[in-house]
Amino acid sequence: MMPNENMFWARARLRILLLGLLFSQSLPLGAETLLLTSDRLLDVSTGRMSQNVQVLVVDGKIASINPDLVPAEARLIELGDRTLLPGLIDSHVHLTSSGANFRAQILTENAAEAALRGAQSAQVTLMAGFTTVRDLAQLIPSSTLIAVALGDASNKGWIVAPRIITAGHALSITGGQIDPSMWVASAEGLLELGPAYGIADGIDEVIKATRYQIKHGARVIKMAVTAGIMMQQEGVAAQQYSEAEIRAVVEEAGRHGIRVAAHAMGAKGINAAVRAGVASIEHGWMLDNESIRLMKKNGTYLVPTTSMLSRISFDNMPASVRAKAEVVFPLAKQSLINAFRSGVKVAMGSDASMIPHGENATEIVAMVDLGMAPLQAIQAATLNAADLLGKSDRGRVEVGLLADLTAVDGNPLEDITTLLDVVFVMKGGEIYKQP
Length: 435
Ligand SMILES: [Zn+2]
Known about the structure:
- The protein has 14 helices and 15 strands.
- It is an alpha/beta fold.
- The chain folds into 2 domains: 90 residues, Urease, subunit C, domain 1 (Roll); 301 residues, Metal-dependent hydrolases (TIM Barrel, Alpha-Beta Barrel), CATH 3.20.20.
C-alpha cells in the first residue's frame, strides 16, 4: 500500500468519526419536536399575558412562538386553561443536605450517601418547576465536590434533576460561619480542614481554596463573609473576612470568568463585599442605607432567602442559635422590606435545605408577602436569576432559548401561590411532569 493510500484511509476514518459525532450530537434526549398549546403565556420581561399561544420546541430549544408552519412530526401537548412560564431558577440551594439541623448529617454521612441524598433533593426540586439551581456550598466535609457530580449526572441523564451550577465548598475563616468543626462543637478530626474544604485564612489560602474549587468543577465561588445565626460562635452577623481577602477571591475567580456569592448578614461585611465586587449578597439581613446605595451603584444582586424567616424550625437546635434568631429575624424583615422598596436587584434563592427541598417556591410567595409585586417576584426567579448566573440561554420564553418551561393553573400575577403547585415541567425539551 502506498503511503498516500494510508493517508486516504486515515482521513476517511476521521470523516466517518466526525459524521458520527455530528449525528449523535444532533439527536440528544429531548430531540422530539413538540407543539405546546396553552391558554396563557407570561412574558416575564414585560408582564404581558398573551392568550391562546402555541410554542414550538425543536431539539430542546424554543424554535417558534405562534408558528405559521408546524412540522408534520410535531407532537401536540395541550395545556389548556394554564399559564406557561419559563422554568424557575433557585439561586441558593444546598442539595447535599436536608433539614436546617444538618449537624448529624455532617458527622454521620459520607460523600456517597450525601450524593444519593442530593439526587433525591434534586429530583423533587425539578418536579417543583425549578429547571436550574445554583448549589451554594456543600456542607459535608469531603474533598469530593458532590454537587459537581450531581450536575454532571443531571447533564448525562443519569438522574432526574435541574441543571446545577455549583460552588463546591464555601470559603470560610477558621472557626467561621461555614467551618463544619464549629457546627459540631469542634469534633476532633474535623479540625484539620484546609483550603480544599473551603477553610482558608489570608490571601494565599483564599486563593488556594478558590483554585481548588474551580479545578474540581465549581462554576461559582461562595464565601462566608460574615457570621450568621447557625453557628455556636460569638458575634451576630459580624464581619469575618477582610475586604482584602474578599477582593483577592473576586479577582482570582474573575480570571476564570467566575462570579462570587457572599454570605453576608451584617452591614459592615455586606458593604466590604459589595465594594470588593461580589456578584450577590446572600441573605443581606442587616442592610444599611450605605449597603443599598452601594448595591444599586455596583449592580450587586440581593438573594434574600426570605422564607427562612417564617419557616425555619429551631426545635432541635442549640438555645444559642434560637437566641440569635430572635435578635436577627425582626431586623431581617425590615432590611428586606427596605431593599425591595429601594429597587436593589433581587434574585430568588430559597436556601433549601433550610426549608424542605421541593418547597423552593415558598420563597417567591414570601417575597410577595414582604411587599414585592408578583411580577417582580417571578422576575427574581426567572430572568434576574438567569442574569446573576450569567446564563442568557434561559429565564424567558423566547425563540432560541432552552426549552425549560413550566405551567401553572390560573394566573400567577393574580395569585402568586399558584407557583406552589407547578403542573407542567419541561427541561431541554423533555417533559418531566404533565397535567
Ligand atoms: Zn445557604
